[in-house]
Amino acid sequence: MKYIRKVLLLFIITVMITILSSCNNKKVNNNSFYYTSYKTSARYSYDVFYTDDYFNKSASLVDRKLATASSCLALAGGASPEGADYKNASGHIKYFFNLLGFNTIKANNYYDKVPTKDSFGVCVAKREIDDYTLIGIGVRGYGYLREWASNFKLGNDKEFAEGFYDASNIYLDTLKDYILTNNIKGKIKIWTAGYSRGGAVVNLSIGRIDDGLKNNINILNEDVSFTKDDIYAYCFEAPRGRIATVEDGVIKEKNNDYSNIQNIINVNDLVTYVAPNGLGFIRYGIDYYLPDIITSLDYINFTNDLKTAYSNMPNKDAIGSYDLDTFVTIDQTKENYTLGLFLMNFIDEISNSIHLRENYYNNFEGALTSLAEALFSTDSFKEILIDFGINLGKRLILDDPTEILIKDALYNRKRFFSDLKPILEAALDRSQKLDISVDEIVNLVKELVPIIIDVLSSSDNYSIIHTLLNKSNLSLLMRGHIPELLLAAMTSMDSNYGYNEKSLTTSYYKLMVSINSDIVIKNGNDIYYSDSINRFAKKDDTDYKIIYLPYNDYEIISYSESDILLYEESGKYLSPKLILDTSLNENEKLNIKGGN
After folding, report:
1. One-letter-per-residue 3-state SS of 358-374
2. Measured between alpha carbons, how far is 477 from 427 in angstroms, rounded to an integer?
3. Which of 23, 283, 376, 382 has the fewest CB atoms within 10 Å, i.e. is most exposed?
4. How far apart are CA 497 and CA 49, in angstroms?
């Protein structure tokens, strides 16, 4: 009898432990998840730290550790490398959710099939916590082949970029079907994250849910209840996919209405500048900037930790060393011109020349989507394109036709394509086979190239083409958009990984000062900028020079009379805000109160 009681007691204790462990995970657990290298398509593992306590506070309050865990969720969404048939492409995201104690894990049909231009992979899972159900949603943000074509579909008649909007319909339909199929009722919370295209789709999807809540409409299911602060959305390196609503010349939206949507942005990432703001496109939520020379006084310390984290990535040999700070400008009137500043300038000029979304739709969208669909048609497209890119680079370096192409672009447009074709053909001859010919490439981009040349060769932007075609700069244009860089950046600011905790910022200053003025800018007792050292400044083509200042407290001293325009550029609102328009007399001081 005693034996039976002991066995029964042991059984009850075992059941209780099992139930408790399955329902709550208050402890911070460290596990290794899998991600796919964008460059080599191989599998690597990395640590993720998770606790249910992440979801105890409002989703509108940024949690640095949840942000890092969300970057792991976003990268786990990349297609896993088992074979070219995509039958187990959702393997990594399913493993991720299982690792963190989620159950009933379901990937939609698109995830495990060869992608098309209209597909989108979504994986949903759930976890019971206290009095609510936590629903996790992962998406495929890279390794998606022909879906690249959808990235260029802006459309002309919706308030969203058409390609991202169509994918957000798939996201929302998958989520609604999951809730219905699994009979989920009562209080829910949602945790979702996406990288690149996946980030743009998460951004639109959660923004549409938030819009429903603002109008007292639950677009998911009337049997579940939630508020905006129950939806934790992290969008990494996301393109813009939503059109701003403008009434009487004033942008209507307030991004604080979508404060549960956190966009983590690297200003050195080309992808984050498209679709262009100049064509009216914005993101839902608040943009938080990774530390950069523009956005952070602590940039040097951040970069040192970032380089350490980057060099410790498991595929460090494949991705190479961190080199974004090697960007150079050909125009000597732009001192300390960074990759981020170049991208801002470059995309602004492109969008100014395209001018209208309708113009892009009528003249460029078809060619770009067709080109993307052709180039990204096979699972080995990365290797093929990398091989082609290497051989094209060799042609440009060894034969040195860059100056000829520049002269063609500037002075003899008709010869540009005839001089470009043999270079492309030589690169193709030495590369793996592309399912597209040189003539097809030329025909598809013939309409696009002239407008780019117009921008690059205009009198106001003469130096852009030289800077863009600089051999070392060309190799950096997409270096800011690789998953490993994001993961290294997030972990290098997180004490879970052994680094000092660092914060993200939402704002920086753009100070425009009369071109001939002598200005000294001090941060405390330190001189942050002085004309004598030309630090962090670039001269504009107007009568002003532009100085970018991280959001903080400054004392500005003028040694000659100077007109000053001070703008705050912020991820909390949609356009630069003029906060100071004044002049300083000789030796006059001005205090700026900033900080985060």
Report:
1. HHHHHHCHHHHHHHHHH
2. 20
3. 23
4. 9
- Report the amino acid identity of residue 325: D
Give residue 550's domain range: 507-592
For residue 81, what are the CA distances in angstroms to 36, 76, 92, 149, 437? 7, 12, 9, 22, 28
Distance CA 97, CA 73 (A): 9
Question: What is the DSSP code string of 194-205?
Answer: EETHHHHHHHHH
Contact call for residues 459 and 18 (beta carbons, < 8 A): no
Q: Are residues 294 and 338 in the same domain?
A: no
CATH number assigned to the domain comprising residue 207: 3.40.50
Give 416-479 as a DSSP string: HHHHHHHHHHHHHHTSPPPSS-HHHHHHHHTTHHHHHHHHHHSGGGHHHHHHHT-HHHHTTTTT
- Contact predicate 507/572, CB 8 Å: yes
Mean pLDDT of the chain: 81
pTM, two decimal places: 0.85
**pLDDT band, residue 455 (cuts 50/70/90):** low
429 and 517 within one domain: no
Split at pLDDT 50, 70, 90, the class of 221 is very high
Q: Based on the domain organization, do 378 and 404 belong to the same domain? A: yes
Counts of helices then strands in the chain (DSSP H, E): 19, 23
What is the pLDDT averaged over residues 503-529?
A: 88
Q: Are residues 527 and 557 in the same domain?
A: yes
**Contact between residue 574 and residue 244 where contact means Cβ atoms under 8 Å apart:** yes
CA distance 447 to 156: 19
Highest mean pLDDT among 328-337, 374-383, 476-485: 476-485
CB 467 within 8 A of CB 331: yes
Q: Which residue has the higher pLDDT, 557 or 393?
A: 557
Question: Residue 133 and residue 249: Cα distance in Å, rounded?
Answer: 43
Residue 451 has pLDDT above 70, yes or no: no
Give me the number of domains the chain comprises: 3
Which amino acid would we find at residue 418? S
